[in-house]
Amino acid sequence: MADSRTLSEPIGADSLFSIRNKVALVTGGSRGIGLMIARGFVEAGARVYITSRSADVCAEVAAELSEIGSCTALPMDLSGRAGCEALTTDLSGIEEKLHILVNNAGATWGEPIESFPEEGFDKVMDLNVKSVFFLTRGLLPLLERAAEDADPARVINVGSIHGIAPPFLPNFSYAASKAAVHHLTRTLAVHLGPRRITVNAIAPGPFESKMTEWLLDNYQKDLEEACPLGRIGSPSDVAGAAIYLASRAGSYVNGAVIPVDGGLVLKS
Fold first, then answer.
1. Residue 257 belongs to some domain of the structure
2. Which of 208, 200, 209, 210 is nearest to 259 (CA)?
3. Domain enclosing residue 60, as ranges
4. Structurally, how many domains does the chain consist of?
5. What is the pLDDT of residues 167-214, one digit of tens each?
6. Quick check: is 5 in a domain?
7. Which position among 174, 219, 244, 252 bears the catalytic label?
8. In this predicted model, what pLDDT tens digit does every residue of 3-58 receive, in sequence order?
9. What are the strands, taking DSSP E only, across the chain?
10. Is there a contact between 24 and 41 (Cβ–Cβ < 8 Å)?
11. Residue 14 falls within a domain, yes or no?
12. Which of 64, 96, 172, 266 is deepest in the core (most CB within 10 A)?
Protein backbone atom coordinates (compact mmCIF):
# COMPACT_ATOMS: atom_id res chain seq x y z
CA MET A 1 0.00 0.00 0.00
CA ALA A 2 1.28 3.46 -0.82
CA ASP A 3 2.31 5.72 2.03
CA SER A 4 -0.54 8.25 2.25
CA ARG A 5 1.70 10.73 4.01
CA THR A 6 4.17 10.64 1.12
CA LEU A 7 1.38 10.99 -1.44
CA SER A 8 -0.03 14.01 0.40
CA GLU A 9 3.28 15.89 0.65
CA PRO A 10 3.39 18.72 -1.90
CA ILE A 11 6.21 18.41 -4.43
CA GLY A 12 6.45 22.17 -4.91
CA ALA A 13 7.52 22.13 -8.54
CA ASP A 14 8.35 25.83 -8.49
CA SER A 15 10.90 25.38 -5.71
CA LEU A 16 12.08 21.85 -6.46
CA PHE A 17 14.98 23.07 -8.61
CA SER A 18 15.50 26.38 -6.82
CA ILE A 19 18.94 27.44 -5.56
CA ARG A 20 17.92 31.05 -4.97
CA ASN A 21 19.92 32.78 -2.21
CA LYS A 22 22.26 29.83 -1.76
CA VAL A 23 25.97 30.60 -1.50
CA ALA A 24 28.11 28.81 -4.09
CA LEU A 25 31.82 28.64 -4.85
CA VAL A 26 32.87 27.56 -8.35
CA THR A 27 36.59 26.98 -8.80
CA GLY A 28 37.94 27.66 -12.26
CA GLY A 29 34.77 29.64 -12.80
CA SER A 30 36.12 32.17 -15.28
CA ARG A 31 35.97 29.98 -18.39
CA GLY A 32 34.78 26.70 -19.87
CA ILE A 33 32.65 24.32 -17.82
CA GLY A 34 33.20 26.39 -14.66
CA LEU A 35 31.87 29.55 -16.30
CA MET A 36 28.87 27.67 -17.70
CA ILE A 37 28.00 26.45 -14.20
CA ALA A 38 28.71 29.80 -12.55
CA ARG A 39 26.51 31.64 -15.05
CA GLY A 40 23.72 29.10 -14.54
CA PHE A 41 23.93 29.54 -10.77
CA VAL A 42 23.91 33.35 -11.03
CA GLU A 43 20.91 33.29 -13.35
CA ALA A 44 19.16 30.96 -10.89
CA GLY A 45 19.57 33.48 -8.07
CA ALA A 46 22.51 32.03 -6.12
CA ARG A 47 25.21 34.20 -4.58
CA VAL A 48 28.25 32.99 -6.48
CA TYR A 49 32.01 33.24 -5.91
CA ILE A 50 34.39 32.26 -8.69
CA THR A 51 38.12 31.54 -8.68
CA SER A 52 40.76 31.80 -11.37
CA ARG A 53 44.55 31.97 -11.39
CA SER A 54 44.34 35.28 -13.26
CA ALA A 55 43.06 38.06 -11.02
CA ASP A 56 42.26 40.27 -14.02
CA VAL A 57 40.26 37.60 -15.84
CA CYS A 58 38.47 36.58 -12.64
CA ALA A 59 37.45 40.17 -11.92
CA GLU A 60 36.35 40.76 -15.51
CA VAL A 61 34.12 37.68 -15.58
CA ALA A 62 32.68 38.41 -12.13
CA ALA A 63 31.81 41.94 -13.25
CA GLU A 64 30.06 40.57 -16.34
CA LEU A 65 28.05 38.04 -14.32
CA SER A 66 27.20 40.69 -11.72
CA GLU A 67 25.12 42.43 -14.38
CA ILE A 68 22.61 39.56 -14.13
CA GLY A 69 22.98 38.59 -10.47
CA SER A 70 25.47 38.19 -7.64
CA CYS A 71 29.04 37.16 -8.48
CA THR A 72 32.29 37.92 -6.67
CA ALA A 73 35.85 37.22 -7.79
CA LEU A 74 38.22 35.38 -5.45
CA PRO A 75 41.32 34.84 -7.61
CA MET A 76 43.55 32.00 -6.45
CA ASP A 77 46.01 29.42 -7.74
CA LEU A 78 44.74 26.11 -6.37
CA SER A 79 47.58 23.94 -7.65
CA GLY A 80 49.00 23.59 -4.13
CA ARG A 81 47.74 23.31 -0.56
CA ALA A 82 48.74 26.90 0.18
CA GLY A 83 46.28 28.19 -2.41
CA CYS A 84 43.50 25.97 -1.08
CA GLU A 85 44.12 27.20 2.44
CA ALA A 86 44.25 30.84 1.33
CA LEU A 87 40.95 30.52 -0.53
CA THR A 88 39.37 28.90 2.52
CA THR A 89 40.55 31.82 4.65
CA ASP A 90 39.31 34.40 2.14
CA LEU A 91 35.84 32.90 1.80
CA SER A 92 35.51 32.28 5.55
CA GLY A 93 36.16 35.97 6.11
CA ILE A 94 33.15 36.85 3.95
CA GLU A 95 30.60 34.06 4.42
CA GLU A 96 29.50 32.04 7.44
CA LYS A 97 27.95 29.30 5.32
CA LEU A 98 28.65 27.62 2.00
CA HIS A 99 25.76 25.70 0.46
CA ILE A 100 27.44 24.57 -2.77
CA LEU A 101 31.08 23.86 -3.61
CA VAL A 102 31.89 23.10 -7.24
CA ASN A 103 35.40 21.70 -7.63
CA ASN A 104 36.00 22.44 -11.30
CA ALA A 105 39.52 23.91 -11.56
CA GLY A 106 41.64 21.55 -13.61
CA ALA A 107 44.45 21.07 -16.07
CA THR A 108 45.35 18.64 -18.82
CA TRP A 109 48.55 17.50 -20.53
CA GLY A 110 48.86 15.69 -23.83
CA GLU A 111 52.04 14.13 -25.13
CA PRO A 112 53.13 10.82 -26.68
CA ILE A 113 53.89 8.10 -24.15
CA GLU A 114 57.57 8.01 -25.12
CA SER A 115 58.11 11.63 -24.09
CA PHE A 116 55.40 12.13 -21.46
CA PRO A 117 57.18 13.93 -18.58
CA GLU A 118 56.87 13.52 -14.82
CA GLU A 119 55.74 17.14 -14.70
CA GLY A 120 52.77 16.13 -16.82
CA PHE A 121 51.59 13.94 -13.96
CA ASP A 122 52.56 16.19 -11.06
CA LYS A 123 50.81 19.30 -12.37
CA VAL A 124 47.63 17.51 -13.40
CA MET A 125 47.25 15.29 -10.34
CA ASP A 126 47.99 18.15 -7.93
CA LEU A 127 45.30 20.42 -9.36
CA ASN A 128 42.73 17.88 -10.51
CA VAL A 129 42.80 15.56 -7.49
CA LYS A 130 44.71 16.90 -4.49
CA SER A 131 43.13 20.34 -4.61
CA VAL A 132 39.65 18.79 -4.66
CA PHE A 133 40.43 16.98 -1.43
CA PHE A 134 42.20 19.77 0.42
CA LEU A 135 39.77 22.52 -0.57
CA THR A 136 36.78 20.38 0.37
CA ARG A 137 38.38 19.54 3.70
CA GLY A 138 39.20 23.17 4.40
CA LEU A 139 35.66 24.32 3.67
CA LEU A 140 33.94 21.67 5.79
CA PRO A 141 33.07 24.12 8.60
CA LEU A 142 31.23 26.42 6.17
CA LEU A 143 29.51 23.49 4.46
CA GLU A 144 28.39 22.00 7.78
CA ARG A 145 26.88 25.32 8.87
CA ALA A 146 24.81 25.37 5.68
CA ALA A 147 23.69 21.74 5.93
CA GLU A 148 20.17 20.71 6.92
CA ASP A 149 18.55 17.29 7.13
CA ALA A 150 16.21 17.94 4.21
CA ASP A 151 18.61 20.17 2.33
CA PRO A 152 22.22 19.01 2.68
CA ALA A 153 25.21 21.08 1.66
CA ARG A 154 26.52 19.99 -1.73
CA VAL A 155 29.94 19.24 -3.15
CA ILE A 156 29.93 18.83 -6.92
CA ASN A 157 33.16 17.61 -8.49
CA VAL A 158 33.76 17.98 -12.20
CA GLY A 159 35.15 14.77 -13.63
CA SER A 160 35.11 13.67 -17.26
CA ILE A 161 33.96 10.87 -19.51
CA HIS A 162 37.71 10.31 -19.98
CA GLY A 163 37.64 9.07 -16.39
CA ILE A 164 35.02 6.48 -17.40
CA ALA A 165 36.25 5.26 -20.79
CA PRO A 166 39.86 5.51 -22.00
CA PRO A 167 40.37 8.39 -24.45
CA PHE A 168 42.05 8.02 -27.83
CA LEU A 169 44.21 11.07 -27.05
CA PRO A 170 47.54 10.66 -25.18
CA ASN A 171 46.35 12.58 -22.11
CA PHE A 172 47.44 9.87 -19.71
CA SER A 173 47.53 11.89 -16.50
CA TYR A 174 44.27 13.72 -17.23
CA ALA A 175 42.30 10.51 -17.75
CA ALA A 176 43.83 8.97 -14.63
CA SER A 177 43.11 12.12 -12.61
CA LYS A 178 39.45 12.18 -13.59
CA ALA A 179 39.03 8.51 -12.71
CA ALA A 180 40.56 9.43 -9.35
CA VAL A 181 38.11 12.33 -8.99
CA HIS A 182 35.21 9.95 -9.56
CA HIS A 183 36.38 7.53 -6.89
CA LEU A 184 37.31 10.33 -4.50
CA THR A 185 33.74 11.55 -4.97
CA ARG A 186 32.36 8.20 -3.87
CA THR A 187 34.74 8.01 -0.91
CA LEU A 188 33.90 11.52 0.28
CA ALA A 189 30.19 10.80 -0.13
CA VAL A 190 30.46 7.96 2.37
CA HIS A 191 32.44 10.00 4.89
CA LEU A 192 30.54 13.30 4.57
CA GLY A 193 27.00 11.97 4.20
CA PRO A 194 26.61 11.64 7.99
CA ARG A 195 27.54 15.34 8.21
CA ARG A 196 24.62 16.18 5.90
CA ILE A 197 26.92 16.95 2.97
CA THR A 198 26.37 15.17 -0.33
CA VAL A 199 29.22 14.66 -2.79
CA ASN A 200 28.56 13.95 -6.45
CA ALA A 201 30.41 14.31 -9.74
CA ILE A 202 29.49 15.47 -13.21
CA ALA A 203 31.41 13.77 -16.02
CA PRO A 204 31.15 16.08 -19.05
CA GLY A 205 31.70 15.02 -22.61
CA PRO A 206 32.86 17.54 -25.23
CA PHE A 207 31.90 21.17 -24.58
CA GLU A 208 33.40 24.30 -26.11
CA SER A 209 36.27 25.49 -23.92
CA LYS A 210 39.92 26.41 -24.11
CA MET A 211 40.80 22.90 -22.93
CA THR A 212 38.88 21.27 -25.77
CA GLU A 213 39.74 23.81 -28.48
CA TRP A 214 42.25 21.56 -30.27
CA LEU A 215 39.98 18.53 -29.95
CA LEU A 216 36.97 20.29 -31.45
CA ASP A 217 39.01 21.95 -34.17
CA ASN A 218 40.12 18.53 -35.35
CA TYR A 219 37.41 16.08 -34.31
CA GLN A 220 34.11 17.89 -33.67
CA LYS A 221 32.36 16.31 -36.65
CA ASP A 222 33.56 12.85 -35.62
CA LEU A 223 32.38 13.41 -32.05
CA GLU A 224 28.98 14.62 -33.18
CA GLU A 225 28.56 11.60 -35.45
CA ALA A 226 29.55 9.25 -32.60
CA CYS A 227 27.22 10.89 -30.08
CA PRO A 228 23.71 9.36 -29.96
CA LEU A 229 22.26 12.90 -29.70
CA GLY A 230 24.37 14.10 -32.60
CA ARG A 231 25.91 17.19 -31.02
CA ILE A 232 28.40 18.48 -28.47
CA GLY A 233 27.24 19.90 -25.16
CA SER A 234 25.75 23.35 -24.64
CA PRO A 235 26.14 25.57 -21.54
CA SER A 236 22.62 24.81 -20.35
CA ASP A 237 23.34 21.07 -20.39
CA VAL A 238 26.07 21.18 -17.76
CA ALA A 239 24.52 24.09 -15.83
CA GLY A 240 21.27 22.15 -15.63
CA ALA A 241 23.00 19.07 -14.22
CA ALA A 242 24.77 21.17 -11.59
CA ILE A 243 21.57 23.00 -10.62
CA TYR A 244 19.78 19.66 -10.26
CA LEU A 245 22.45 18.34 -7.91
CA ALA A 246 22.50 21.62 -5.93
CA SER A 247 18.73 21.93 -5.56
CA ARG A 248 16.12 20.15 -3.46
CA ALA A 249 15.54 17.86 -6.43
CA GLY A 250 18.99 16.34 -5.90
CA SER A 251 19.01 16.27 -2.11
CA TYR A 252 18.95 12.44 -1.90
CA VAL A 253 21.59 11.86 -4.59
CA ASN A 254 24.97 11.02 -3.05
CA GLY A 255 28.10 9.45 -4.49
CA ALA A 256 26.85 9.53 -8.09
CA VAL A 257 28.95 10.15 -11.18
CA ILE A 258 26.63 11.57 -13.83
CA PRO A 259 27.82 11.60 -17.46
CA VAL A 260 26.68 14.74 -19.27
CA ASP A 261 27.69 13.72 -22.77
CA GLY A 262 24.61 12.89 -24.84
CA GLY A 263 25.46 9.17 -24.48
CA LEU A 264 28.87 9.48 -26.13
CA VAL A 265 30.62 7.38 -23.50
CA LEU A 266 28.28 4.48 -24.31
CA LYS A 267 29.80 4.32 -27.78
CA SER A 268 33.39 4.20 -26.53
1. yes
2. 200
3. 20-267
4. 1
5. 888 999 999 999 999 999 999 999 999 999 999 999 999 888 878 887
6. no
7. 174
8. 555 555 566 666 899 999 999 999 999 999 999 999 999 999 999 999 999 999 99
9. 23-26, 47-50, 70-73, 100-103, 153-158, 197-204, 257-260
10. yes
11. no
12. 172
